[in-house]
Amino acid sequence: GRVTNVRMPLEPITKANRGYAFVNVETNGDAQACISALNGVEFCGCRLAVEVSKRCAPHLKTPGVYFGNALRRESPLPHHGGLPSDRGPSAASRRSG
Q1: Which of 60, 12, 4, 8 is nearest to 31 (CA)?
Q2: Which DSSP state fits 61?
Q3: Strand ranges in the chain using DSSP code E only, listed in sequence order
Q4: With 0-12 CB in 10 A as exposed, 13-18 as middle and 19+ as buried, what is 25?
Q5: Rounded Cα gap, residues 52 and 12, in angstroms
Q6: Which residues pair with 7 in a beta bridge?
Q7: Residue 87 CA from chain centroid, whole number
Q8: By the 8 A CB rule, do 21 and 7 touch?
Q9: Digit-coded pLDDT (tens) for 71-80
Q10: Rg (Cα) of the chain, in Å, rounded?
Q11: Pairing status of strand 22-25 against strand 42-43
């Protein structure tokens, strides 16, 4: 089938390809033919996953900046084990004090 549009999302800062693309074709039959022919095919060392989009419309563009609650950003996350936190006194000085 005939490809009518291709959109390859890029990382906002590096402009690197995110590893996927959106391809539009003329008909549903063309789309099914593309899926049948290309899904699972190896291309440039990568296995292609070709499927119908799960969304009816694209996501809204974001500026790459977090606009959530400022108070949550400023408060440190609770430490739940693992590596010692890089905030405040070291784990060794907390144990000795």
Answers
A1: 4
A2: P
A3: 3-7, 22-25, 42-43, 46-47
A4: middle
A5: 25
A6: 22
A7: 29
A8: yes
A9: 554 545 554 4
A10: 23
A11: unpaired
